[in-house]
Amino acid sequence: MKTIETIGLTRREALKTGLAATAAAGGLLGAGRAAWADTLADIKSRGELVAATEMQFPPFDISDNGAYKGVDRELVDAVAKELGVKVSYLDLPWTSVLPGLEAKKFDLCIAPVTITKERMKRYAFSVPIADATAALMKRADDKSIAKPEDIAGKTVGGQKGTSQLEQLKAFAAKLPKPVDVKEYVDNNQSYADLAAGRIDASVNSLPNLAYAAAQRSDAFAVVLPAFGQPTYFSWVGRLEDKTLLDAINVAIVKLDGDGTMAAIQKKWFGQTMDLPTTVPEPSI
Amino acid sequence: MRPQVILHSFGYLTQAAGTTLAISLAGIAFGFLIGAAVCAARLSSQTWLRRLGGAYVSVFRGVPLLVLLLFIYYFLAKFGLDIPALAAAVGGLALSTGAYQSEILRGAFNALPRGQAEAAAALGFPGPEIWRRILLPQALRISVPPLINEFILILKASSLVSVVGIAELTRVSMNIASLTYRPLEAYVGGGVFYLAINLCVAGFGAIAERRLAAGGAR
Questions:
Q1: What ipTM was estimated for this complex?
Q2: Is this prediction's pTM over 0.80?
Q3: Cβ–Cβ of A57/B172 closer than 8 Å?
Q4: Which CATH number fits domain A134-223: 3.40.50.1240, 3.30.1330.10, 3.40.50.880, 3.40.190.10?
């Protein structure tokens, strides 16, 4: 009986505990942060830039045994150094990243986002940080695909809601035979199905595919050339944070000029790429 | 299959399993307090308390946990209520499981024959004593198996808290899958940890059941 009495609660006790829990919850709710006047000024006074991304997008964002690595990590560290602040990183699922930005849970989205006309209306883009042109990847042993046009009549997968998938659909519409397009929640599932033989090719940006194929050359090979229109990846901020984006752009352009950017590209992509130093007009 | 992937990430997975366990246990504990309070409200003789308890259960059992978490973390932030990720995760789990736990407890109390309380009253037991000595011990004994069920469900549902940016077990398995391009190994690794945790919970449940049964031996 002892055990029962220690866990047991009388009705009145239960009610009291419930009220205490409610009061505690109320205290948590009340601890709200005041609205920010100017995000850049706030970052400088805090001495810290809070950046978020999904750490499942190699080679841009990787969580290697809990350590954040990749192109974005090295670039944002260099940018923060220019601004004279430290960085803290948040790992959020992609579906939570843009809502989190709008809810002011962090200052900047450092996930690579393709610049499109539709997104320009809602978010402020930085100058490009990488090439985002759409390309295809096939199984290494598949000899039936030698150029992008060979996907006619085959099945191709890609991540839902990405501009690369939209580019694939536009490209497929011009081919002589229809392409069966399968949409995935994320690219890793598309790669897994490619390896398993459920689809014949995966679409993504060229840097992502080149990295994947290099990591698993036994399984994957990139289909060259890239088929999409030239597009770019940028970081994204809130529309009202113009001062922050301006400061970040100045820093990125400086890193582009002093060779830091080229060194990061060489390390992660195996090659350098020329990037525009202004935010380009989106072609899609 | 390449088991090295799991071995390489073993420490990372262990750490994430710890996060899953800590968040789930905190959610379950707070949820039990909420469940006890809501159950008390629903069994109350006051009509307004009964309605309040009923409304709580309807709302928090009706809203998916994922939506609840997104609401707490992102939607409330738009009104200046900036709830930290950890509080949002534990709070979301607790609010949700509290509704289920209150119904488990209420079902257990309702399963007790009414005559017992009446007989105790006739024998001169005061009201709180009837609760403490007669109704509560039996109700708890009845509710152990469904409560353990609910605890295991919450442990698995805790994978949803990654939407507020917490690196729990499922999230970390996904991170490993994307890093290594070996999804099978990564998810098998995560699955083994879930299984191990839940077998432990089930084991504790069996022990609790035995001890409660022993305590109630006539």
A1: 0.72
A2: no
A3: no
A4: 3.40.190.10
